[in-house]
Amino acid sequence: MMYSAHSPDKERGIDLQPYESHIRGVLKRAIKYVEDIGGNAVVDYNSLLNIVRQAALFHDLGKLDGANQPILLGEKIAKRLPVNHVDAGASYFLDSNNLSLAAAVIQAHHIGYGNFLEEESKEDRMFRDSEIMEHTDKTLDDLLAIHNSLINEYKISEMYGINGKKAVFLRIALSCLVDADHTDTSVHYKDHPEPLPYIQLKAEERLAQLDGHITSLNKRDDERSNLRSEMYYSSRDSKTTADIVSCDSPVGSGKTTAIIAHLLNIAIKRQLRRIFVILPFTNIIQQSVKKYREYLVLEGENPNDIVAELHHRADFESNESRHLTSLWRAPIVVTTAVAFFETLASNSPASLRRLHELPCSAIFVDESHAALPVKLLPLALNWINTYSKEWNCYWVLASGSLSRFWDIEEIKLTNCYSVSELINTDLRNQLLKYEKDRIKYQYDLSPKGLQELSEWVIKFPGPRLVIVNTVQNAAIIADYFKMNFGEKKVKHLSTALTPNDRENVIKAIEECLKDKADDDWTLISTSCVEAGVDLSFRTGFRELSSLLSLLQTAGRINREGFYCDSEIWTFKLKESDCFNINSELHESRNILQKYFERGIEILPELSTESIKNELQVSAISKKSKDLVDCENTCEFRFVEDLFKVINTKTVMVIANDEIINKIKNHEKVSWQDIQKHSFRIYGYNIEKFYLREIIAGIYEWKLTYDDFLGYMAGALQVIKAENGVSLIV
After folding, report:
1. 477/538 Cα distance (integer angstroms)
2. Most CB atoms within 10 A, among 265, 319, 378, 625?
3. pLDDT digits (tens, 9 = 90+) for 397-450
4. Which CATH number fits domain 203-432: 1.10.10.10, 3.40.50.620, 3.40.50.300, 3.40.190.10?
5. Which DSSP string do the residues of 155-213 spell out, in sequence order?
6. What predicted TM-score, i.e. pTM, was given to this entire model?
7. Is residue 568 a contact partner of residue 441, using CB atoms and an 8 Å limit?
8. For the structural domain made of 440-616, what CATH number should be given?
């Protein structure tokens, strides 16, 4: 008799997938993912292999139920299976083999883990669906008999103990199962071709090529160039035996290439399989990606395959869209802290699907002190320590701000971290001497309206950089500049633009900056350019935010020290002219304002004190402790809910008619193309901006979109209408 795991798609001419075919496919893939992680340096490797094997074998046991098979065979049509198919596998391990963690993985493979304290309080109903328990218990022996008649060559082995952090272990176990399950299903339905074999890191060859590039660039014979060269070779050849190191090298020291050389060398020594580059928050990453592709891609390779560019999470749970999920399969992955750390925190199977690619990697967290909101740093450092000690990961925490946030007691909590220095004190001090006179910090905290701010800014020498706290404020100011000073006098860069358009804007900015005679213009932006971009302006303006953001912005001003009078001004906006105020920055704004009012000199060394001040605010300190406590007790849903770089839920929106039509017509489209032509917007704006869902989790933009303001070109029209004001003067 035929048993089915997936129903046929008659419209597309795709037959059903036999149960045994799917189980064998998932098992093969899941075991391969575990084996790719490797057993030599992973604390709980045998337990991982055993649990993943058992979960893969029995994850769909309930699909054999007599009520489910008519739908899966295509004899009946239904939106969902009448019997929850995960309960049978969970029941089998709980009742027969006491493999409770395998039961937990099976229960979670569609909906994510529950909170374990709640599950444990359910006693004999732990990891079970209480609504169908009685039915499952009655039919379990029959289901097992069918399963064993189809797949009978695999034996259940003993359970191994978990010696490491249980929450991290369980996420990786679920990652292996879910990726195997989703991949096998999408290949069957022809949504995605069979994945190609992994591209190897080839660290030796890439390091040799990077050395050649650096040699060709280091032709100037002056003290600063010589120090950059020393920085590169000192980092590359470091003899460190630590698992976590820090590198606090100032702007213009060649930190980025030096650290990549170091990571490639570490990858050679430790036989690591990929490198991650993590940039703060939702930063613009195209410049970094361009540089890495130029320096690290070998002859004959496709740059897109070698250096993956992930601007934001592209995770989809539904059957019709989950094949579009972005994965971490490239040997070098460049992404943002939002996409990276929220994956580590996730309880969503679609997000966790990529997590098994992280073990045995080298990770470069650029501007690590500013990579996350302060309240999230304790748990993030907890994960960094766990992945280094238990999953063969090597970390570089880089900074240009002399931050030692890992030494703050409120961040350490109950954990002990050992963080070593990558470069020696003498070299660091020599590099820092160029930083002291590069820029002067100024402030004017009298709140300014749109016209007053604009006329104040243009009095200063250019090119000028203005960074504000919200996408809406940046669009309002950029729109005003364009209408009143001319389109050649202003550029706009924010996440209101798709990555494709942001790349074009960056190219235009780079061309303008090359022309030293063309200096009377202003870039209006958000925090997306605070780090990760090699852009240098004469004068800077930063809406009052955190000290860390101010220091980050300062890194975009007079980067090479060409000017002797460069300034960066901190300012405040009036609550008028449709400006909106980011309430999430309330505490950090107050702390920085007090520094100014007390006459405290703004220096990079102040960043550790600033982080400490934020953490000492009772609400932030409590949230940090709650997060770590929830992680330690495997409260997965709480951790996912609380660990948000951006607190408000966002949705993905596409602004490209060709891609939208392909999706509507069920034509193949890659997640890379979706990423290039999409942006994320707060979910509470779905109705306000008339968003239309075209596939589960993906929306189309119907208002005006242009390559200057992005989606804010249409959104501003709605905002103006709501407020009954005109912003054009």
Report:
1. 19
2. 378
3. 988 766 788 888 777 755 666 888 888 878 877 777 666 678 899 999 999 999
4. 3.40.50.300
5. ---PPPP--S-HHHHHHHHHHHHHHHHHHHHHHHTTSSPPPPPPPP--HHHHHHHHHHH
6. 0.85
7. yes
8. 3.40.50.300
